Amino acid sequence: MPRYNAPFEIHVHGQVPLRADVGFDALQESLRPLWKYAGCRSLSDGAQSSYEDEPGIQFDAEEHVLQMCWTVAGDEDFRQTLDEVCMNLNEIADTGAAIEVTFYDADFDSEDAPASAESRDDFLMLFVGPNPAAIMQVQRDLLVQDLINMMERHFDGSELGGVVAEVDKLFAARFDALVHSLEIGKPPRGSGGNHGGHGGGRKPRHLH
Question: Which residues span the domain enclosing 146?
């Protein structure tokens, strides 16, 4: 059901490339936490944004892309919904993608708000992808873009190769550390154990 007097207007914005075999039914199931949070019974019902001028949640079946420009009224509990959605999108994403989420304080601009009140606005940048490498790649690309945009105010773009190289080293070290941590949990080769399954270990959670 709709949330009246919710403390936030929450805007979700992003574009996620999907695997070619992903259809509407699979996407609807992956996005179930979103449309259920909005009090709807299906993705078709829940895809409309709170604002008519926003396209909402759209599935481009020809290009296999999920596009989101969608606002819903909510509270801090929406963060748990985001965790669930990101985990689900990891399973159907074709490449890494970034999702921007903004919490707008619904009461801050109201006439009843005290003059000394501070806004509770918040901003999150979430990442999804089919594997940690894909997620780190989009994280790296966004960081490099931000750094270049900032530093080009003071330096020519041709001078920034060293900065980009250092960023790549940082992400390479992070990825190597992740791979090493996953390798530690694997049984030694030739030690027997279960075959054709995951054994007693849990499937690692994808980063987001």
Answer: 136-184
